[in-house]
Structure formats: C-alpha cells, structure tokens
Amino acid sequence: MTRLVERLPLLDLPAPTAASQRLCRELAALVDGRASTASHERALYARDMWPKALMWTRAGYTALPPDVIVWPETVEQVAAVTRKACELGVPLIPYGAGSGVCGGTIPLRGGIVMDVKRLSRIKSVDPEALEADVEAGMLGEIFERRLNRQGLSTGHFPSSMYCSTVGGWIAARGAGQASNRYGKIEDMTASVTAVDGRGEVVVTPRRPVPGWDLTQLLIGSEGALGTICSARMHLVRTPEARVFAGFKFRGIEEGTEAIRNIFQAGVRPAVVRLYDPFDTLLVGKGHEAKPAGKKGLLRAAFDEKVLVRLERLGSLTAIGQPIGLNRAADLLRECLLVLLFEGPADLVELEAEEATRVCLAAGGEDRGPDPARTWLEKRYAVSYKQSRVFDSGAFVDTMEVAATWDKVTQVYHRVRQAVAPLAFVMCHFSHAYPEGCALYFTFAGAAGSLEQIEERYDAIWRAGLAAARSAGATATHHHGVGVSKLNALKGQLGDGMRLIQALKATFDPKGILNPGKLGV
Amino acid sequence: MTRLVERLPLLDLPAPTAASQRLCRELAALVDGRASTASHERALYARDMWPKALMWTRAGYTALPPDVIVWPETVEQVAAVTRKACELGVPLIPYGAGSGVCGGTIPLRGGIVMDVKRLSRIKSVDPEALEADVEAGMLGEIFERRLNRQGLSTGHFPSSMYCSTVGGWIAARGAGQASNRYGKIEDMTASVTAVDGRGEVVVTPRRPVPGWDLTQLLIGSEGALGTICSARMHLVRTPEARVFAGFKFRGIEEGTEAIRNIFQAGVRPAVVRLYDPFDTLLVGKGHEAKPAGKKGLLRAAFDEKVLVRLERLGSLTAIGQPIGLNRAADLLRECLLVLLFEGPADLVELEAEEATRVCLAAGGEDRGPDPARTWLEKRYAVSYKQSRVFDSGAFVDTMEVAATWDKVTQVYHRVRQAVAPLAFVMCHFSHAYPEGCALYFTFAGAAGSLEQIEERYDAIWRAGLAAARSAGATATHHHGVGVSKLNALKGQLGDGMRLIQALKATFDPKGILNPGKLGV
Questions:
Q1: Which residue did the predictor score with more confidence, A495 or B486?
Q2: Of the candidates B478, B476, B456, which has an alpha carbon nearest to the alpha carbon of residue B468?
Q3: Neighbour-count burial of B60, counting CB atoms closer than 10 A to its CB (0-12 exposed, 13-18 middle, 19+ buried)
Q4: Is B257 touching A (CB cutoff 8 A)?
Q5: Are strands B152-153 and B189-196 parallel, antiparallel or unpaired?
C-alpha cells in the first residue's frame, strides 16, 4: 500500500506550476472565483482522516497534494468544473468534510480537489413521505438538527456526525450507530443526483426501479463514477421513547448468540454494541472516577475512553511489543452488551422486555440502563480524539468487516491471533442483522522511526484483512475502500472487477474521477 | 407494443429448420440429451402468463416460438449451453416456471429457451445465519415447505407461489405478500451465482460490499445480463404467532393515511392490503353464500373472488363499455383494510394494538379478524384463475406501480380516470413502506375481434402507465418490465439507459441473452 501513495515533505511543497496557475484561473471563472493553489490549502486537501496520513503529518510529510482546490456552489458549477477537467484530462477528486479513514479522497495523481461543502442546502423536506432532498455538502449534525425542529430525523448517526457530509455517507456506503433499526445508507437513499465524468447530470430512478438499480451503483462509488451533488433521503420520525439496557456475558460467544436471537426474533433495537473483554474493561471504567495514580499498564488504560487511553498507552514502550498486552487481555472473559431501543413508547418497552428475556436465556446478567446511557452521551467522541493519539507517537486504526453468525466468532479469534504480534487489538460487535453483524477492530501500536511505524502499520493491515477474509468475513462494512482496502476489494470482487471497469468506462470515459480508487 | 412481438398461427408453426435441428443435436450433447424442437414444446415455451399471449392462445395464435428448448441440470451445463449460443450468436432466453405477467420470457427473436427448472436443489441451509443456498429452478412452494420442516421460511409469498421459481423472483425483482415486514426480493438476496453472456460464472459478493453492489445488477435483470443459477437467500423463522385485523374506512384517503401512520410509527405488519371501494365489495362478499340468481351487473359481481367474477362479467357486454360500471363504482366509498401481524406472540399482539389505535384515530371501524383470515386462506388463488377469464372472451390484466405517500391518492384517481373509458378498473394498496406504497390496479375489459381486443388492451396500458407516471408513480413495483413496460422503463431511466447498455456490453458482449428486453 505504501507505494500506492506518494509521500512528500509537508513544509517544502513545490510551488504551483504555471500550468496549475492557469488551470486555477480557468476554474475560478467557473465558480465565482473560489479556486486556490495556496500551499496551505493544497496541504490540507492532500489528506483525510486516513491514519497513515495523520502519521505523516506528525512526522512532517504529506501525501501528494492536489494542484488546485475549487469550491463550487451549485450542480451547474460542479458540471462546469467537471467538463473542464474532462476536456483537459486532469484528475478531479470530490471532497466532503474529509472524515474518511481509508484515504478515499487522497489525490493519488494530483489534479483538482473539488470541495462540495458549499452545496449544503436542504432543497425540500416532505414530512408526509418522510423524505428530504438535500445537497451533498450538508454536514450530518446540521442536517439532523434542522430535521429535529420538524420532529424528523436522519436515522443515520455515524460517529463522524459532526465532521461528515451526506455526500460522503453515500460515497463511502456508510452506516450509522442506529443502522440496526434504520438501515445502512444504501437503505436510506431513495435517489442520487450526480455529475458523471463527462460533466453530465445523472438522476437515478428511485426504488422500486424498473430493471436494475442504478442508485446502488453510485452508493459506495467513492467519487470514481460521479460527484454526488444531492440525494433524496428517507427520514424517520424522532422517536417517541427510548429504552436503555445493558447485559454482561461470560464471553463473546454468549453475547453474539444473544444478539443473533434478538434480531432473528424480529426485535430491532436501534443500537447494539457488544464489547469484547478488553474493550468492556475500558468502557466499564469510562464513567467512573479517574484513579489517583497509574500503576501498571492495564490500570493506566482503564480510567477513560478507549482512544484517550491509547494516547497515554502510546507513550509506553509496551504498545510497541503488544504480545504481553494481548495476552493479558486473553485472561479476561466478561463482555458488555449495550442496547438502545427507539420508537413508540409501549412498543419499545416490550421490545426491551423481549430482548431482556433473550439475553438472560443466553446467560446474560442484567446491568441496567447506565452503560447504554453513558454510551449515548459519548457517541460522537471518538472522531475528535483520534489525532491526539498520533501526537503521542503511537498509532491507532480501526478495521470493520462483517460476517454471518456462523463465522462471527471465528473471524474475531483469527484476526486477534493474526494481529496480536503487531499491535494491541480489541473489538466490538455492532451493526447487527438477522444474518450476521459487523466486527469493529481497533488496533493500537507504536514503533520507532516513521519508516518502522509505516512498516508495522502496513503489516497489521495485511495480516488483519487476510485473517478476516480467510475466516469468511467481507472486506469492509461501512468505512469504504479508499486506499487501505484496495487489495481486499480486488480479492473480494475477483472477476467482478471487469464489471467495475466497464461502469467506469461508461460513467467516466476519460478516467478523471478520483483515479486509482476502487481499482479503476 | 404490438409490433414488438410477432404473432403467428398457433397450430401451423413452421417445421424446425435443418439449422435448428443441428443446433438441437449440438445442445443435446451438452445437456444429457435434454433438448427439443418439438412443435408442442416450442409453442408452450413461446409464452409466459403475459395476458396478451393468453389472448392469442385463445384466438389460435402464438408469439414467435423458440427454435430449440434445452433443460440443463447444472451450472456447468448452463455455462456450456451459453458458450455454444455465444459462439453461434443465437439468442438464449432463461426460463423458470413461466408465471411472469409482462412477457419477460417471450423469445422476441427466436433462438434457444433454456428452462432451468432442473436446477432445483437446496444446496445448503444455515439455520444459524438464517440463509439458504438454493438453485434458481426451485419452485417457491416446494422451497417454502422444505424450509418449514426446519422451522424456517422464505418470508417471500408472491401470489404465484405455486408456479414461480427463486430465479424468476430475482430476475423480475419480485415482492411477496409479506414484503411489508420481510422486504422485497432485493432485500432477501445475499448473493447471486449467474452465467453471463460469455458463458462465464459470476458470483456476486454479498453485502456489505466494497464499493458498489453487483448483486443489485443481477436482481431485476430479466435474463438480459446473465442466467441466474443459484442464490444465497436470507430466510426468516416461521412466526411464533399471527394476529389478524380488519378495518373499514370512509375512503381511500383515510385508509392510506392509516397505513402511512402505521409504518411511520415503526410498526411492521407482514401483510397490508387496502381495497378500493369496488374491490372492497368483491372481497367483502368473497366468503358469503352465493346469491341464488344474478340480478343486475353489480350483484352478479359480488358472489365470489375478483377474477372468477370477471370471468362471468366477461360474458356481459357491459364490460366492453366500462364507463357505466366505473361510474357505479364511483358511488361507493367504503374501503376495507386487512392486516396480518407475524412474530413473537406478545410483540405482535402489541403491534396489532398499536395499529388498531392508529386505524381508529384515522376514522377506521374495527371489523375484526375475519377479513384477514379469509384473505390468508385464498392468498394464492388469483394466479390459477387468470386464464379462465380469457376463456370467456374477456381480458384482465394488472398494473402495479408505487408512489410516495404525498402522491398515492393522486396516482389512484388519475389512473382510474384515464382507464375508465377503456376498461373496468379497480385497485388495492399494498407493499407499504415508511415512504409510500404500491398501487395494484386490475383492468378488465372485452371487445369483439382479436384485433379490437388488442387495440383496447394496448390503449389501456398506454393510458394507465402514462397517467401513473405523470402523477409521480414509478413504472413498476414487482412484476418486472418484460414487454408491457418497456417504454415506461426507457421513460423512467432516461439517460440511465446508456449505463444499462454499457452493462449489457460487458456482461453479454454478443447480445445473445434475452435480446430486446430491458431496452438492450
């Protein structure tokens, strides 16, 4: 993966070429002057929240930056910019809020980054059909807050809620924390308006479609087929009531069995999170008072949330030799499951009762509503804390895959085993379906030089994804493909890659849209 | 539409050519001898349940028949047949149980019809992940019955349950009567194994997919991209309990409002059917004793189920001048809503209570469980009775479209108005979602000669679809496109057609797969 992305000194970027400056002027004329070749902007738009790019930033490096950044404000401006890029054969990378963690927006071959955050209007809200037509640059939290005023909600709550856009959700095929009840973004998107690689506007027909479903081609397309400009989104009503529940299980086998039985009985909690034993320890201590001193590695890890903890762990050499920490975690068994039910008051009460029965039957111990309440309070905290970990010289990343119930625990054990020599690893199980669920692994490590860190980081990803795939998991759940999962994409699609290439050739005949991504 | 499909005398089919006989021998060698050019088989495989083909049969005509029929038994045989067809450039039309009502399997350009009903094994059932790997030729009712033995169910109950296959469900993007709770076939299909137009086997990755969703390209592809050979299907557990409910409303506005509020509150009955006033009369009388005599048109219509009734109506000249009958129906107002809840006993009780509250609040009058019970008993009756109508010289057809709640009643009124001069028309509302529902229109008419009937029939479809589309409906809900909706497909997809053409060129570079369908 290293070779895929070029690395340059951050503070010594080459000055814009005459050609870039000319391109910038031409683009500026199309977008009311909002185009730039300034070095600080080029450096900013050279990355998203891909952890490797964060490591580089800390070490004074950057991925290859774009040559020009533009900020269109309308679909017509997006189309005009695209036609210009197509005419010149210059790469064009759509950009939302830059919260992607797989490097999906990194301009592998330079070119134009097109920030669509100015396309941020809610064009219409239909409370009767529970739908909104919203532009791609709308930030999640703002969208949600505006809908809430009308008693409506997106139903989509990624942990990046404050720093991700509707267009980004769709481009990366995202899922929110309440996907268990309301679905992933592909279930929520009725229709997409996009500008393809020729600068033409495509409006996909809504379901039920005649023949096949073109909306599903733009969902997950990561800017490589078209720039998503707006979408018709299904909404939900803000829930009348919420019920919180928490259970302790003797192991992940019991816990996942409980989740399976809840979903296969037709009960749909909005939120389901089963923490593995070490994650359970961290979460369990999350709302207790901080200990006075730090005695020993594990204790040091227990006094706050996961990533803040890892920030401190990072300063410890132990995380550079994670075997010991992983072995310590192996001694733990107890797992915490948090559940949140949303909907009409009496229905959610009964759903919670039903789930409680299932959990007790699976050997769970009722821990009351507090763990789920605590989780809800901190639901958006993680995205803000990630970069602080890197400041300390450690690194952290997450890998989300999914598997059917018959394979879930084997995926868990094999990934832990494969990554154990390389990083400290923990996991939670969430985004449940009747047929299976997602596994969300967190890796934390440290190493000496940037080169050593990169090598370690790449080895973790190779080992983690290979173990997940060999145990029967998908390559991704909701973070998209970007650069970190490009090889896994090719492995999972196999001969399907030629179909992607055909789509690419049709949507984007000159290959200007986010080139190198999705394997095309 | 007439011109799209050629019509020949049924009993005077041209004898197989020497080329067809040679092709038949070559194909027979690939499929253990199971290939035929016999006239009776060619005539049988020249049609499905497309009403116009039924009219033709009655009048002694047929659509252009295939030249050869083959019955492969394995994926390898499907691939071998396809490679041969590709090599020779001969059309190849996959065929399941022939229950399609839009003419999707009619071999517009002759060639080979490939009946996949011998691919009918359940390859595996995974009760833990609630999934089965099943071959495409498996008949719905047999599949369901075998699953039931293990406490499992497809959750998919089209009225064609006894005469449709899993492959046909997927190829036509179907929906069953319980789609309200369990989803349409696109929600139930985890992965598809198909043979593309080059004879290569494609296995689509299951959700959550990296990048875009290739399974969604084969769902609804009506044999034009590949022959579906098997699929991994999500299953449900057979429900622990069922609750039946029925309500009368003063009009369709109140009734659809009630359905909307039920679904937007997060309550999910398995079955939801709101009958328009005339359909309500027919349904309401469905389980009462037959009247002794037939006094007047309406009374004659009331003593049994819809289609059996229309069979008798067909003999009356009134149905040839439907204005009067439609005006009589205009005087009616009362609408019946039937609901069926399935799931864990206490949950469905509460869901039914919640729905009852909503229905009463919308002005509904509780009619107890009987209407829903009666519906359940007769749930598969319609598909068997359709052809009897044609025997009587009348014709009947159904048109299913979908709309968001803000447009549902306007679609209803506009379609009725547009079709009223041409056919007797009634409608029920079913397949509900939080954002809208499907409208299922039944048209019944009569005319003199075959030419007059065809002209009337085509005019009904043109008027009905145009009215539906102009009022904001989709062109289809779950019957597929076939030949009856081909123009509407093009209208709805617009520029999207070039994407379909690109997919076609990739999956089927020689254009041999069901040529002329889906506009490619």
A1: B486
A2: B476
A3: exposed
A4: no
A5: unpaired
Do residue B212 and residue A210 have CB atoms under 8 angstroms apart?
Answer: no
Residue tagged 């109506």 (tokens): B313
Q: Where are the alpha helices (DSSP H) in B137-198?
A: 140-148, 166-171, 179-182, 185-188
Task: Please state the ipTM of this predicted complex.
Answer: 0.90
- Is the pLDDT confidence value at A5 over 60? yes
Residue A44 has pLDDT above 70, yes or no: yes
Q: Does an H or E element contain B24, and which?
A: helix B18-28
Q: Both tokens of residue B221?
A: 């592809």
Instruction: Give how far Cα B276 sits from Cα of B336, B399, B464, Å.
Output: 7, 15, 17
Q: How far apart are CA A20 and CA A369, in angstroms?
A: 57
Indicate the SS3 state at residue B453.
helix
Those of residues 464-503 in A touching chain B at CB distance below 8 A are 474-478, 480-481, 485, 488-489, 492-496, 498-500, 502-503
In terms of DSSP bridges, do strands B68-70 and B112-115 run parallel, antiparallel, or are they unpaired?
parallel
Q: If you search the block for the tokens 């969902």, which residue do you land on? A: A219
Over chain B (520 residues), the average pLDDT of each successive run of 10 is 78 94 98 97 96 92 97 98 98 97 96 98 97 98 98 97 97 97 96 97 89 88 97 96 97 98 94 95 58 37 44 54 80 94 93 96 97 93 69 86 97 97 95 97 89 93 96 95 91 83 91 94
Dihedral in degrees, nearest 10, Cα atoms B170, B176, B181, B186: 10
pLDDT score at B318: 60
Contact A351/B354, CB-based, under 8 Å?
Answer: no
Q: Which residue has the tokens 């049994």?
A: B304
Q: Is B12 on the interface with A (CB under 8 A)?
A: no
pTM score of the predicted model: 0.92
B212 contact residues in A (CB cutoff 8 A): 173, 216-221, 225, 500, 503
B118 touches chain A (CB under 8 A): no
Cα–Cα distance, B161 to B184 (Å, whole number): 14
How do residues A143-188 score in pLDDT, each as one tens digit? 999 999 999 999 999 999 999 999 999 999 999 999 999 999 999 9
Q: Among A369, A330, A203, A158, which residue's Cα sits nearest to residue B495?
A: A203
B212 contacts A217? CB cut-off 8 A: yes
In angstroms and rounded to an integer, the radius of gyration of the C-alpha atoms of chain B is 23
pLDDT of the residue at B495:
78
Instruction: For residues B364 and A29, give the distance between their C-alpha atoms in angstroms, rounded to a whole number.
Output: 60
Structure token pair of residue A269: 């909690």
Cross-chain Cβ contact A208/B173 below 8 Å = yes
Q: What whole-number distance in Å separates Cα of residue A364 and Cα of residue A329?
A: 21
Query: Which chain B residues contact residue A432 at CB under 8 A?
Result: none
- Reference A107, options A42, A46, A167, A197; nearest CA is A46
User: In the block, which residue shows the tokens 């409906």?
Assistant: B473
Q: pLDDT tens digit string along A313-348?
A: 544 455 667 887 888 788 888 999 999 999 999 899
Nearest to B395 by CA among B313, B324, B327: B313
Return d(Cα B464, Cα B458) in angstroms, integer.
10
Task: Give the DSSP per-residue string, B471-499.
Answer: TT--S-SSS--TTTTHHHHHHHHGGGHHH
